Automatic annotation (TrEMBL):
HAMAP family: Iojap_RsfS
GO terms classed as biological process: cytosolic ribosome assembly; negative regulation of ribosome biogenesis; negative regulation of translation
One Pfam family cited in the UniProt record for this chain: RsfS
Intracellular or extracellular location(s): Cytoplasm
The organism's place on the tree of life at top rank: Bacteria
Role according to the record: Functions as a ribosomal silencing factor. Interacts with ribosomal protein uL14 (rplN), blocking formation of intersubunit bridge B8. Prevents association of the 30S and 50S ribosomal subunits and the formation of functional ribosomes, thus repressing translation.
Protein name per its UniProtKB record: Ribosomal silencing factor RsfS
Subunit structure of this chain's protein: Interacts with ribosomal protein uL14 (rplN).
Record carries keyword Cytoplasm: yes
The keyword Transferase is annotated on this UniProt entry: no
Assigned GO CC terms: cytoplasm
């Protein structure tokens, strides 16, 4: 499955279970680990787990292997590795604390500034 199709599948799975503040960040130019990160919030530990389960179920239905998962037991933060796409589902307090959007977006801006300066 192409990266864009996988992103659409994961976002649809998150929206179906009422994921909040869903953000996709293209990280192809920033890391070799994955192509796209999807970040979403759940309202409780149970909601975070349901969101992650929904993404895993939809991925498996389409023949996509879940290469790894973390945090499904705690419910504060779940991570799903779908290869070209990594999905982070967090409760708002964890999302604010880790601030992945700022981290990855500032990395992109920093690299763009260095490239524009000829570095």
């Amino acid at each position: 499955m192409q990266t864009e199709q996988l992103v659409e599948l994961a976002v649809a799975a998150l929206e179906e279970i009422k994921g909040k503040d869903i953000v996709t960040i293209d990280v192809r130019e920033k890391t070799s680990v994955t192509d796209v990160m999807i970040i979403a919030s759940g309202t409780s530990g149970r909601h975070v787990k349901s969101l992650a389960d929904s993404v895993m179920m939809k991925a498996k239905e389409q023949g996509v292997s879940v290469l790894g998962s973390e945090g499904l037991d705690s419910g504060e933060w779940a991570l799903l590795d779908l290869g070209n796409v990594v999905v982070h589902v967090m409760q708002p307090t964890a999302r604010e604390f880790y601030d992945l959007e700022r981290l990855w977006q500032s990395t992109a801006q920093s690299r763009e500034q260095h490239q524009s300066q000829g570095e």
